[in-house]
Amino acid sequence: MTFVGRDDSLRVLADATSAAKVGQGSLVVVRADPGIGVTALLEAHLAAMRDSGLHLNRVPVLRPSGRTSLSAGTPHWGEPAMIVIDDLHHADDDTLLTLHGLAEEIYGRPLLVVAGRHRGVAPERFAALDRFAIVHDLAPLDDDAVSAMLQGPSPNAAAAGGNPWLLSRIDDADRVAQVTSWAADLAGSDVHVLRCAALLGDAASVDDLAAVAGATPSDVLSAVGRMSARGLVDESGGEVRVRYPLVRDDLAAASAGVRGSVARALADRGAPAERVADQLAHAPVDPWTVDWLAERAHQLTSRTTPAVARLLERAVAALPPGDPRLPELRVAWVEALLWSGRTEQARRAASEGLLADPDETLRHRLLVVLGVIANGEFDAEAALAVWETERREGELPARLAALDAYAHLLAGDLEATQRAVSRASRAAADDPLVEIYLCNVRAIGQCLLRDYAAAGEQLDRASVLLEISAYDRAQWLMSRLLRAVLQNLEHDPAVTETIEQARPVARELGLGFLPWTHTIAAVTALNFGEWDRALAEVEAGLALPHQHGMAGPLHAVAATILLNRGDLPTARVHAELADEADLYGVAMFYESLMMVTRAVLAGVDGDLKRAVDVVRDVVDHDVGMRHDRSVAPVCVPLVRIAVAGGERDLAHRLIDRMREWSDEDDSRIGYCTGLVDRDVDRLLAAAQDFADNSTPLAAAQAAQDAAVALAASGRSDAAKAAYQSAIDGFAAMAAHREIDRTAAHLRSYGVQLGASGPRGRPKHGWDSLTGAEMRVVELVAQGLTNREVAERLILSVRTVDSHVSRILRKLDCSSRLELAVKYRDRS
Fold first, then answer.
1. 816: domain CATH number?
2. Which residues form the HTH luxR-type domain (predicted)?
């Protein structure tokens, strides 16, 4: 360990020393919480001043009396001199009186007094002295200083909170004993309250702390105030936290023997079951614990922790065969294993539990565990097999019926899904968890129907039920992931936050949820043009032991990006792996993405016939979960291929498909129509819409196609402006192949780009308007409403609304009237 991170503090003391040597003496008070390093700083300064020419004097504070050599008055020191007093917070009143006198006359003498004290201890005693002093507050070490002190990273460094004393013991074999002794010494008579605060975890209410400490709330508040002054705890809003996590954890480890009594005190207060269980997880299993668990085990399992799972396992092991409490506890343990992410152990334990021939209620709970695991692995066949025996014996119970609906959906059998939903719906009013399952299943169906508003309503209902009526980690996660899918389809930037909310639970539960999370994140990043992040998600997803059908979509995302970036060999490898991957369950929703990748790769290879054949295959045959609806979202690249291959009829069929399952004002329809008809204004308008909706690849491609169309018509200047917009978009994504390809197209039409690249369209003023926007201006200036403009130009009202908003912004107009006036003045 080395003395680091205190250069500024040493400089303050060195400057004060230099001033004292020339007769400008002062009192310097260094304040800090315990362990922050006041003593080490004073020692370092003394060592640096040995050859300074000053008489160096250390004044010890004797404990417990607080007497010092200043208690009887000011000693005679040969001057120039420096006097160092550590632990001033322990000094008696006589010492402080002497320092007051010194402080009043020290300026003008070659005398420096440096005193160190704990910041929070009796601040009122030192208020007057501080007014005479140069006060220097010592802060915890920053991250760089911590790293330098430890000479490298340490897993416990953050828990020490930058406290040098704790950091210096962080890797000691007897650290727990040292830290406990240090904290107990500082806490004094309040150590029991401190131990109870550590056992209660990150935050403890004053009332809970009083209950487990066997004290009154008033006494606890007094103790908390004293310990806060000593830098041991923080209190805010009635909640008490041990300041340093390292101290909290070590105190808790050294106090494990009282966890049982803490649990009982919390239980007597009616604390949430999981808080009681967290204490019992570290205590021996006794009869009281078993009885308490038997009454509450079922409510513990849905929000379980690994500690609760271990507690239930120990309780099961402690009971003799035949104990009537054993079957319930065993099933609760299986459920806890599932929700704490130990799915393989949960599967084995559930299967073994079924062999014990439990009663019907417990059997159904075990079957639910097995069904959740099979569905979570996206293995519809295995899931349906779990409750086949139950199905043969009669109608499935509600929760199994809900799982049955999801399994049929994974299998792609929508009619069977609807039948299962109908069966489960009859019981949903009595079981909110069944309704949560059905909300998620219905949301998937609404997404397939492209009724995003209805899907969002189902997910909103599921969220409310999960919050107030029932809780199921898998269904919470499913709801979050479906929300992310929906937000991605709607190009909602909030999708990133939703994914990050889901990711920790996906990591804990594993199964197919984790690769699906990576896939959603990869597709989202692809659509938003954040391609490096997309590739990182692909890499993380493919590194998992099992992708549960998601390998194909992940490889397809990578192939798409690498194709656009010009890395054709690696793109082909990913495309081939995508074709070879098993596709089942949720991955079937992404099959159209894989088909698009295959078609684009054929086009890149120059085999337009093969590319068009793939497009025709997509249009004419079943692809994805619902062919008629799953093709619509990926029609844009397919239309591009059809147009490039001269297949206008095929392109029109794709556009008709989009019209059937999309809003008429969907930018993709306008883009594809402009592409087929070589309508530059539609292409430029679509490019702007794509940019506004955070779909940068589509925006750049639309501008690219407009540039080529303009060049083909001999409008080279306009082509350069459109290309500037395209190149900016492609460059942001490092899509080098697209940049080179467009440049080659333009050169074939005789359009030469300058050495500095084409000039872009201005962002403001009349020259910033596209042709489509100018036509809108003309009609608005004539007094037409947006609806009338839409009818005249055969556009949707929403598209005209967007045009008018952009025009007002570009021309710095506050109203349509001002726009009309500016247009007439310009004319």
1. 1.10.10.10
2. 762-827
For 425, the 3-state DSSP assignment is helix
Q: How far apart are CA 51 and CA 11, in angstroms?
A: 16
The domain spanning residue 22 has which CATH number?
3.40.50.300
The DSSP 8-state label assigned to residue 37 in this structure reads: S
- Is there a single domain that holds both residue 707 and residue 810? no
Q: Which of 727, 761, 795 is the last residue of a domain?
A: 761
Do 750 and 791 sit in the same domain of this protein? Answer: no
Burial of 14 (0-12, 13-18, 19+ CB in 10 A): middle
Residues 341-353, mean pLDDT to the nearest whole number? 90
Same domain, 756 and 777: no
In a domain, 817, yes or no: yes
Q: What is the CB neighbour count within 10 angstroms for residue 420?
A: 24
Tokens 């054929």 label which residue? 602
Q: Do the Cβ atoms of 403 and 379 come closer than 8 Å?
A: no
Are residue 774 and residue 688 in the same domain, yes or no? no
Is residue 599 a part of any domain in this protein? no
User: Which residues have a Cβ under 8 Å from the Cβ of 818 and sit 6 or more positions away?
Assistant: none
> At residue 184, does pLDDT exceed 90?
yes
Which neighbouring-strand residues pair with 205?
239
Structural domain containing residue 813: 768-826
pLDDT higher than 90, residue 93:
yes
**825 or 55: whose pLDDT is higher?**
55
- Are 683 and 750 part of one and the same domain? yes
* Cβ 255 vs Cβ 195: under 8 Å: yes
Residues 32 and 133 in one domain: yes
The pLDDT of residue 757: 43
User: 756 falls in which pLDDT band (50, 70, 90)?
Assistant: very low
Token readout for 645 is 């291959």
- 14 and 96 in one domain? yes
Q: Is the pLDDT of residue 28 over 90?
A: yes
What is the pLDDT at residue 797? 66
Domain count, the chain: 3
663: left (phi > 0), else alpha (psi -120 to 50), else beta?
Answer: beta
Per-residue pLDDT, 755: 39
CB atoms within 10 A of CB 29: 23
Confirm whether 694 is domain-assigned.
Answer: yes
783 backbone dihedrals φ, ψ, rounded to 5°: 95, 10
| Exposure class string for 195-233: b at 16+ Cβ within 10 A, else e | bbbbbbeeebbbebbbbbbebeeeebbebbebbebbbbb
pLDDT mean across residues, the chain = 84
Please determine, for residue 61, whether its predicted confidence score (pLDDT) is greater than 90: yes
- pLDDT band per the 50, 70, 90 thresholds, residue 627: very low
Q: Is 74 helix (H, G, I), strand (E, B) or coil?
A: coil
pLDDT at 344 over 70: yes
Terminal Cα distance for the chain, rounded? 79
> Burial of 124 by CB count in 10 Å (0-12 exposed, 13-18 middle, 19+ buried)?
exposed
pLDDT recorded at residue 824:
78
The C-alpha atoms of residue 134 and residue 478 are separated, in whole angstroms, by 60
Domain shared by 11 and 134, yes or no: yes
Asked whether residue 375 is assigned to any structural domain, the reply reads no
pLDDT one-digit tens code per residue, 115-171: 999 988 888 889 888 888 999 999 999 888 888 888 877 888 889 999 999 999 988
Residue 326: which H helix or E strand, with range? helix 326-339
Mean pLDDT over residues 16-33, rounded? Answer: 91
What amino acid occupies position 354?
L
As beta bridge partners, residue 56 has 82
Q: Which of 139, 170, 194 is the last residue of a domain?
A: 139
